[in-house]
Structure to design on (31 residues):
C-alpha cells in the first residue's frame, strides 16, 4: 500500500464518519 493510497483511504473513512455524525444528528431531534 503506497502512502498516497493510505492517505486517500484515511480521507474517505473520515468523510464517512463525518457524514454518519451529520445523519445521526439530523435523526436524533426527530426522535
Amino acid at each position: 500500500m503506497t502512502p498516497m493510497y493510505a492517505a486517500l483511504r484515511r480521507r474517505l473513512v473520515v468523510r464517512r464518519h463525518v457524514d454518519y455524525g451529520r445523519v445521526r444528528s439530523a435523526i436524533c431531534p426527530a426522535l
Q: What stands out?
A: The CA atoms of residues 18 and 24 lie 10 Å apart.
